[in-house]
Amino acid sequence: MFYSIQKADEPLARQLLEFYFDVFIKYRAGKEKEIIEYPQEYYDSVFEANELLCIRNRRTVSYFNDSTLFELFLDSFQRTEISPKTYNFIWRCLLQVLHYGRDEFVISYWRKAHQLFDFFLAPAEKKYDNKFQIINQEEIATREKGREAFLEFHYSLGGLLMYLGKYELLKEIIYWTNQEPPKYVLVPERMEEIIKRYMGISKKGAYVNPVYYEQRYPFPRISGVNSDGVIQMWIKRYLSMLFLRQYTLHSYYIHSDPLNMPTPPNNLGEMKHWNEELDYLNYYVKGYLKNKKILKNFGLKYLSDKKWFKKNQKEKPTDLINKLRKEINEKFEEKKHNQEIDRDILNEFKNKTNRILIKAFDSYSHLFCGNMESNYRSLFIGGRYQVMEKAGFAANQEMTYINSDTVVAEGVALEFGNISLNTLVLMHPQKYILKEEDIFKAIDKLNLDPSEHVIVAVGVNMSYFLMLNIQGLKQEGEDWRYNQIKIVNIDNQMNALVRQSFFILKESDLPSLVYNEVSENIVAKFKLDKIEESRLIYGNILDLNKPENQVIRDEIPNVNTDDLSKLVIVCVGINTEIRYKKGAKCLQLKIFYQFDDRGTVNSLSDVQPDW
């Protein structure tokens, strides 16, 4: 093959081409519907031969004048699938011929690809059983996947040619057809297809695979962290020119207006994505409309004349885009106002609320384990009724909402932990501020009875004291003891009044936790559902756009009516009561911390028993 190309031996070239065709056909034989990856020597020999063709002068008559050997990898008859490796090889061959300025080879390749896609990659015909159910869905999906890969490759080729400034070459291939009325299979014939493909470009190169295009369709002289984005940009610019090309197409059939724009998507996230992408499309289109040189090379010079659109009764490109954006914005607002709270998300909210609050209550069960029926005071802790974005609780979300179904319950749990610990302060303990090395010495001075007294450690790093080898301090699983005295360890650093403190009191004087019913008025007002029986936890999410919630809407200050229709009230209802004994004796030994504590540090001699 190399000899025939170099010596222009046409008879030998004809024989060798036939030989190569036979070799490829035999290799693909019996592999219908399989993804074909050829032996490496097939790729290597064709690439080297293609290099010789690129540097060879064009002959008056030659088999190689407009022929590219890498067309051998396009299977037009045996219905095999093109592998990613083969796509990558064809791309490198196209880069090769473009490097040498052999535009005629690109045109030759395009014709072959057009024929392959039109005749041998047509959508699979649906087959039905006697119940009119499709029975070849897998075949249909496989064919569609192959078609999409083929189209993606050729749209990327268009972006490459835009990047290289091959406008006249682009004009020739995007208008190439072999039938009348014209049929263009590798470029869009409908505006809807252009817009939808434009919207899909950045999705493939997003966070999931930030080098998607760079790996598959590398551009010459483009590298670095932003290379994938640059390649995407040139493909979008190519689609922007195809957008303008639609003005040259004629309607050969009824209801086939080439300028018909697509219907906006229904998904809020998709609408937002379209709106953002249409900004860039509008920018590219406006730029090309001002560039008479590029328009001329594409055969679109007349579009630079603003009067042409009115004269030909065509909407301006930017008007088409802005009209679609307006439709999207109107639909977006309507969706945000009228979307329903998703039932599955509501149920998940209730389940998570239940788990979060039960965990919070249980984490304080060793502290609030008293049993008081008389001679006590009470501290009540309620729930939360928080205004939030409705979109976070709808199935159709414009973006990913993280923790929207847990944030209120977590707030209630945090509030419960912080407020409930105030009962230790409300017991008016005798307080001593001591250096850390004096803490356990002070406890020793109190002459505590392990059967009667208990130590409550709040926000104290008990593991640190264990490492100090404090005599008598022991840990068994989650349980702590000091000289047989039980230590209730509360991991809470948030409450500044009690953190880094040891509270000493009688075990019989420990506070108690009571779960009360939420007020009937509150339950009725917020339509609360009981989601936990023993701890009396309630929850619901109310749509403020609903007429039945008008009374609640009127009570919310500083939010305009339009905003409220896009909001919900996330309700977590509890009515917990912490009971603590009147007159109970309690001591607080606070670890001195120079950045928090002011005043005099107590000496060990200051500490006196109060029993």
Q: Helix count? A: 22
Strand content: 5-15%
Major β-sheet profile: 7 strands, mixed
Radius of gyration: 38 Å
Distance between the termini: 107 Å
Question: Strands across the major sheet, in which order?
Answer: 4-14-9-5-8-7-6
Mean pLDDT: 90
Uncertain regions: pLDDT < 50 for 5+ in a row?
A: none
Number of beta-strand segments: 14
Structure description:
This protein has helices at residues 2-7, 10-28, 40-55, 84-99, 103-120, 137-163, 167-174, 191-204, 212-216, 227-245, 268-289, 292-297, 306-311, 317-338, 343-363, 407-420, 422-426, 439-445, 462-467, 520-525, 550-555, 561-564; strands at residues 35-36, 81-82, 376-389, 430-434, 453-458, 473-476, 479-482, 485-490, 501-506, 512-515, 529-532, 537-543, 567-581, 586-591. With 611 residues, it is an alpha+beta fold. Among the domains are: 178-338, no CATH class; 340-385 and 398-540 and 571-611. A seven-stranded mixed beta sheet has the order 4-14-9-5-8-7-6. Strands 3, 10, 11, 12 and 13 form a five-stranded antiparallel beta sheet that branches. Strands 1-2 form a two-stranded parallel sheet. The longest helix is centred in the first third of the chain and has 27 residues, at 137-163. The mean pLDDT is 90.
